Amino acid sequence: AIHKCCPSAPQGWKFNVASVPVAAYQEPPMWAALWLVAAAAGQQCSPVVKVERRNPLDPGTGYAWPDIYAGTWLQPAKRFMKFEPRKIGNIEGAVHAHVYGGVNGLQPTPALTRDFFDFSVEHFSYLTKMAPGKQGQDTFLGNITSRLDGYTHRHTFSHQYLERSIGIVPFGGVPSSKHWQALSSQMLRAVVMSMTDALSRVIVATCDEAHAMRAREALQGLERVVVHNLNLEKCQLPYLPRATQATLKRCLIQRARRERHVYRNEICESWLQGEDYAYVMYNDADLVLHARCIRSLGKAMDEDPTLIILPHKLQTFAKDDDPLPELGVAPSVRDLTHDVDSASCCDSGTYPALKHLDQGSFDGCQNFWYNCPRMLALYDFARFSEGTYTPLLLGNEHGRKCLLSEAREACDVPHRRLTVQRQYLVPLLAFGPNNQFEGLLEALTVAKLVGRTLLLPRYFDPHYRDTRSQKKKFGDVFDERTLREFTSVEFVDEDVIKLWKTSPKILASPLNKERLSKALHNVGFDQAPRKKAFVRSHSRAADVAQAFKGFSAAGAVFVALAPLFVVDGEQDLLREAARYRVRSERVRTLAATLRGALFPGDEKVLCAHVRREAETLGCVPGRRYVVCPTPQGTVPTATLLDNIVDRAATHGASRIYLAHAGGAGFEDEPSTLLASLEERGFDARTASTDMSVGFESLDPFDVSLVEQELRSMVESFAPSARSTWSQTVVLDRSARGRRNAKPLDVGPAPVKQRRL
Fold first, then answer.
1. How far apart are CA 483 and CA 500, in angstroms?
2. Which of 293, 407, 369, 385 is nearest to 337 (CA)?
């Protein structure tokens, strides 16, 4: 998908001079010349191309999901003000958290420019990682410092910045070595100077006064720059990026509402200077910015406020005359006499390094492909005498290559595609049916998040205590076609089995052997991966993406993951996936038949789910839950009845459907509840225990599926807390915009007394 960001001429500009009276047109010749130059530059700006949620190895002409990470972003201020900085869990999260999931319902649209040089950053921290230990380190770091100092003096800064734009840069964690400090200061000056060329204001935030003093010294003489000490107790990552973004967000909101805050007013006045801002850019202190098309990008965001525009991340490398050449030998470097802004590097649409990996293995490439000279030989390198004069790999860190032109030119849609191998996510679905369903939902979310194809299970197992039900085929439970609309999914075939036997694979979940074997068998495999890794439970989306980045770097074609409770906190992402987790046509038809048989007409129906358990897994000391079987921790039948009546009254329902799963000691509860509800004037029915409704041929697994679908379609639903059965229905309903009642574990709200 392509978003046109660059009109042939800026709006409101007139070039038909003959149509303008001479007396009315008296611009100085210099301004006229600048207009023509700006118009020509506008014509050369490439469009922004939206990122596809796919793996780089899958076919497609747009950018793939891993291409987005550059450590920086540009987005509309209105969208930034809706972001919650607490989602930032690590340094990558300062960018990832903005891109993954929606912000208060506003789904992000990440995009990059087709010409890499239209919007890119030079990444210097990777170059500093090549520094030797003690011997030669001073010379190595001094060499980089000298190049950056030369850039600040040689580079021609046009200051054609984007009006009403503000940038933020966290600065901290500088080592105590004098050579590291000199490099960090010079790097900060180069970064901020490059940002002031594109943005109307730049804020440098530090965690303590020592870093603030160093920043003020480094940035002395620069205009439209503010250095501010946030006085943080913890200076390490991710506290500084999080605090920097949170402070700017509060100030922008305060400014938009024209509020005054006694504690924040001085800070916000210093940061904003009483101005309104329409665009925000976040940048790291090691990324030199090239943003010659910044004004065109502003127009693109005006047209589409969901856009988050990411710069291309260009890696810097040591030349063969630097120390330790084996870490960064550039096979051939083109020396150019101008700067990046005068050239083009058009997207090729190809990933040569990934194509030429030996079955996904990096062999002697250490931890990433660009540590291998044989991989680097597949790419071009260039250094620009009026720029940083540091060799740049002409491609991003995931190996997407761009094609260099010494003069600016229009970039066409890349046509060259490589036939490359897919990468797969193998879901290990275990425990009861609803644990498997919730695991499938998280697996769909993770697969889309990391750009892997999800291999669907062929079967779902019934509950281990359910001796009357059989395994269900996937197509008997869910609609495969709608899942394909959400992300790439497949069933295992002979080709995938052969690939499984010969390709690198990782087991990323600590399941016991029996559950692992059963879960793999349901997908279609009979051999477990030997190599093991770890993905934390209850992770943020950005952390999971980072973990899988390491799996891809290790060349794993398959990652087997027990997805339940991996991203369970990312409710926005799960709700989006639930929109596409649609039950099969068979189940939907049975549910519609059940509703018509039990509740003909249009009167409102409340579905109540009562989940009684025989085990104490759902018990919490000091709390009462329906799922808890102990006398001290359960919700008694009488209280449960009152809660059901309250939910029906709150939602205006005269009909009640009861889905009851009973534990030991609660065998008679369904009939008791139904009789009591009838006595109170409700039309109460169930199919959980009463097979006379016409489902005699269905086993308990099928009845449960039909009841869940019925609950997804009626007017209101009252769940049992801590029940995966209820949670499945709650997410289904939320994804479709349907109302859920309070859990049955919670008593009626107290009646408010009017004060006389």
1. 23
2. 385
